[in-house]
Amino acid sequence: MNLLQNSTIILTGFLLSEMLVAARMHHRLIHFLLRHSGKNLGTLLTAILLISYTLSIFISHTIVLISMIPIINRMLSLVEHNDERRVAASLFYLALTFGSNTGGMASLTGSPQNMLAITLAEFFTFEGRNIITFFSWLGVGVPATLILLFCGWVIILVTAKPFCIPSLFSESSDKLAVLPHKPLLFLIGNLLLISTLSALQFLYTPAPIFFTLNTIDLGFLLYGTAFLFVALILPKTKISLRALFMNTIFLLLHLFLFPLIFISRLCRELESRMGVPMKNSYGAIDNLILQIVQRVWTRCFREPIANLDSPNANSMLSINLIMKDLPYFGIFLLSIVGMILFGLLKAWDNPATPELDSSLLTLTKSTILKTIPPVSNHFLQLLSLIIVIIFSSELLSNTALILIFTPLSSDLALLTSLSPIMMLLTITIAASSAFMTPVATAANTLAFGGIEHVSLKMILLPGLFMNLVAALWTALLFSLLTGLLS
């Protein structure tokens, strides 16, 4: 039940980050970083890079990115001038995406593409797939990605060197500049629990004991349910049936109204980013939401809700504030890219045109094979293939590229002297190594949509250098691994 386990990790990871935000840990962390960075922009960028990298090893990198965006935007609000804000936003974007994308490659649970690779290896029954476990991936992934992270760090510091943002460090108060130890221990404890359950997921496969669920599945389910209950339903102070019922209705109401909330928030972001006048639209939607909530709430509890933006003070987390912090514009961009990709795949896999689909598949295969230069050096052939995959990911979904290239793993393995399973892993890592454009990965799209004032011109060149470094290092890594395992 990988879907259940991965869904639990994503949900609890996101709620965990929101708990820390609700405890204002992100404000304390910001003040700590600003206070202890010595008013050095490079030190601050290094901290963001390392935090996003480390968290992405244990939690899906897209969830880490969504959780970090409020912290980034809070720091950007401290910057006074528009030019400085544009520079700061672009540099923070680079640190956040370089860290989260690289950390996502370091473990099986760090990226959905890694889990997809394991599923495809089982589907195509590649020989040697049994060597891929949580710990074997982690054992190779962490040292390998640390080298790539170092290269990204150098690129970011070189990019940031000409710039100075004094207003970012203008606050002189020492208040809240102490690192919050208890919330960090809470975070580390939950990360260790998630990591332990994730490790057990790959080390053991117990027999089902409840329908199709085994003991590990039930452990994930129990942990996720308990976390959800404590975070959103359990009363913060005095426990009573009325308080439990109020928190439950508050949660269900907002989940039911989320489509309307999404449209309203998206209209607000489109207005602020593109100058499109949409006040009447989101105003009408907000009034409709308020009327629905007031009617249900008054009927259930005989009291009105004064303000929909007010937090639910009776629970640890308030679902309306969580929804308020979501990067709606980033999710919107991601949805557009996904729909375009889905349309292309459906057009390709049309039952009415099987001959055309077969011709397209043959054409794709021959085109891919032609991109590899006809040289006797297998390393150069592998490097060329990786470069093609990385730069194709800048325009296409990395998930789609993995699905397209995986059936060709055996043919590509013959050209590059890699085994099919190693070729599949190479394809997966290469497809996740696109750092240049905002549509290259889901993390890039969410960051570009969630962080305002990012300069496209400023992020392209560092992303290009990171792509080339990633291509070279990926080719070296899998050539070395193939030599060691052969």
TrEMBL record:
GO terms for cellular component: plasma membrane. One of its GO terms (molecular function) is transmembrane transporter activity. It is a multi-pass membrane protein. The keyword Thylakoid does not apply. Its main location: membrane. InterPro entries: Cit_transptr-like_dom (IPR004680). The keyword Transmembrane helix applies. Residues 9-253 form the Citrate transporter-like domain. Keywords: Membrane, Transmembrane, Transmembrane helix, Transport. It is found in: Membrane. It comes from the Bacteria. The chain crosses the membrane at residues 6-23, 44-71, 131-158, 184-204, 216-235, 241-263, 326-348, 379-405, 412-439, 459-485. Pfam families: CitMHS. PANTHER family: SOLUTE CARRIER FAMILY 13 MEMBER (PTHR10283). This is Citrate transporter-like domain-containing protein.
